[in-house]
Specification:
Blueprint lengths: L5 H14 L2 H11 L9 E7 L5 H6 L7 E8 L2 H17 L3 E4 L3 E6 L2 E9 L8 H8 L4 E5 L7 H13 L4 E14 L5 H12 L13 H11 L2 E7 L2 E3 L4 H18 L4 H16 L4 E13 L1
Parallel strand pairs: 1-2, 1-6, 2-5, 6-7
Antiparallel strand pairs: 3-4, 4-5, 7-10, 8-10, 9-10
The chain binds S-adenosylmethionine.
The site of S-adenosylmethionine has 20 residues, from α3.
Length: about 300
Amino acid sequence: MGDFSAEWLTLREPADRQARSVELLGALVEKLGPGRVRDERTLSILDLGTGTGANVRYVAPHLSSRAQCWCLVDRDADLLHQLPQHIAAWALDRGAIVSGGSSSFVARGPTLDCLFETRTADLSRLADDALFGPLFEGRQLVTASALLDLVSERWLELLVDRCAAGGTPVLFALTYDGRMACRPEDPDDAWIRSLVNRHQQTNKGFGRALGPDAAMAAIRLFGAAGYEVASAPSDWVLGGAAASLQRPLLEGWATAAAEIARGEGPRVRDWLTRRLAQLDAGVSELIVGHQDCTGWPR
Ligand SMILES: C[S@@+](CC[C@H](N)C(=O)[O-])C[C@H]1O[C@@H](n2cnc3c(N)ncnc32)[C@H](O)[C@@H]1O
């Protein structure tokens, strides 16, 4: 079992879809178009930290002019096991049928031709050549969503090395960038934000996490490795229609803040009580800053 439940990932997927930069992805897709990359037939894509497959469901239709082969990596075997059912419901909406088992399955229909292979692996072992060398080899795209803020600077350097070694284009979406605003404003919002951002930099399994610095670090490191890098904001703007996402988000922020500000539990709880009251009154809006980023080897 991992830290990211299927319920949470399902809850955030509509907000993620709405937030992502379609322009940035469009420019990358244009470059990946037929005749622009090696191997004209099938695009081979590596997705890191796949979870329930939200990144696949967002990206694959944009590449539907090509057959696609996706390698989906996560350390959470339960999430990967559930993938075929998450992909099947989505594929069916596109007239495509999923067949196969949980480690290898296909989605085929009039607008989709995708092979999916899953690998249960701990990405913190990225330096392990025997494990990760073959997974990166021969890919035409390395991608992830909502992953980079969890990783350390050292891990990101290793990722850049692996991608640059193969001259592989990259797409990293929805990296939290430290911006977080609540409306109506509360005097303790800024205090909570600074505590949450400190919590974001605690170890998430990869060493000290980059947290809010991750997007800038990715831009800097891929740029230094010779990539042409582009980025665009992909903020969540959560209003009343996203109340079911706002609630666990606010509760999660309160938990994180209380973990950092030991002894300040009552003040954190009071902040949460006020915010949940705003939510119940239907007037709460949350903005959470993210960045999408693409890199193209020069
Ligand atoms: C925030 S979720 C994002 C999932 C999915 N990409 C999405 O956008 O919904 C982060 C994912 O990274 C995975 N993950 C976290 N640490 C990992 C590690 N050390 N190795 C492999 N996967 C990891 C989690 O299991 C989870 O599925």
